[in-house]
Hints:
With about 240 residues, this protein is mainly β. The chain has one helix spanning about 185-190, and strands at about 15-20, 35-40, 45-50, 55-65, 70-75, 85-95, 95-105, 110-115, 125-130, 135-145, 150-155, 155-165, 200-205, 210-215, 220-230, 235-240.
Amino acid sequence: xxxxxxxxxxxxxxxxxxxxxxxxxxxxxxxxxxxxxxxxxxxxxxxxxxxxxxxxxxxxxxxxxxxxxxxxxxxxxxxxxxxxxxxxxxxxxxxxxxxxxxxxxxxxxxxxxxxxxxxxxxxxxxxxxxxxxxxxxxxxxxxxxxxxxxxxxxxxxxxxxxxxxxxxxxxxxxxxxxxxxxxxxxxxxxxxxxxxxxxxxxxxxxxxxxxxxxxxxxxxxxxxxxxxxxxxxxxxxxxxx
Length: 241
């Protein structure tokens, strides 16, 4: 059975990404993080673990219910067990995220987000508010062309272009979304409606990025190079099974 995670790569042999290795950039030596992913028997990601120099782990666990997804995020360091936990409840309507509420470790609701879709189930806008900051309310709009988001518009605009490669979940290697607004892991699994058709090529907004991909004989990405406007780069290596 084809899972939501693999719908966008259905012409390829079905695989799931298990490990990403993010190397240090050419100019910085403190960017080495190694995320890996665990799945349930339906192919849904249940756990995302970021290892940082074997000293600290950032962990997010996903629990899937009929009309809700619960994400529990916490850290584990070399000197402690699980630290304070942040809980995010994603409410589903017809299998798609309609809203989310994020709770701090004290159980206070601090972030509220509403998601709006068009008749094709494409995400077209997000309404965000944060109870810690009364000036934080914002509306973000998304423009789609040929199955891809080409513009993200709030106070500024971010323009995106795409390769001809089919979209694949590559963790944070090609995440163009604000994590306060969209959980990239859930987006890739189809929980924000339609997913992207292709892998991003360029990102032009407050920052400028170019993405360069290496694939294996089956078409799966094995390496991503992200190049900054000043020429600095970092590389991410992907393992599949």
